[in-house]
């Protein structure tokens, strides 16, 4: 399964979730929800702050692409489970 690009970047930089949340001006839990994919998009002000602290790409584009890829992976997984269930005697 692919990894959230924001989470991957945070870990590569050696930042804790608490630390990045402080830098972004959001709560630990808001960042946790973002890293888990609970948001449809990244708010523009958070994307701007990510860029200001060195995020290398377009945070919102990368995040939305990751969510779509994750959605497709999960749909395929569900399809395989249902197919296997239907094939059992």
Order of helices and strands, N to C? HHHHH
Number of strands: 0
How many individual domains? Answer: 1
User: What's the tally of helices?
Assistant: 5
Q: Would you state the CATH class?
A: Mainly Alpha
- CATH topology: the name is 434 Repressor (Amino-terminal Domain)
Q: Give the CA-based shape.
A: elongated
Q: Please give the largest β-sheet.
A: none
How would you characterize this protein structure?
With 89 residues, this protein is mostly helical. The protein has a single domain (5-87), classed as Orthogonal Bundle (434 Repressor (Amino-terminal Domain)). Helices cover 71% and strands 0% of the residues. It has helices spanning 5-12, 17-24, 28-36, 44-52, 59-87. The longest helix has 29 residues, at 59-87.
Q: Would you kindly provide a brief summary of this structure?
A:
The protein has 89 residues and is mainly α.
Furnish the topology, listing elements before pairings.
Blueprint: H1 5-12, H2 17-24, H3 28-36, H4 44-52, H5 59-87
Helix pairs in contact: 2-3
Question: What are the salient characteristics of this protein?
Answer:
89 residues; 71% helix; 0% strand
């Amino acid at each position: 399964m692919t990894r959230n690009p924001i989470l991957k970047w945070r870990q590569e930089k050696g930042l804790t979730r608490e630390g990045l949340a402080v830098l972004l001006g959001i709560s630990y839990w808001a960042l946790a929800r973002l890293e888990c994919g609970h948001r449809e998009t990244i708010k523009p002000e958070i994307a701007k702050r990510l860029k200001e602290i060195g995020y290398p790409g377009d945070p919102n584009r990368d995040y939305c692409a990751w969510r779509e890829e994750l959605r497709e992976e999960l749909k395929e997984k569900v399809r395989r489970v249902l197919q296997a269930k239907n094939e059992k005697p």
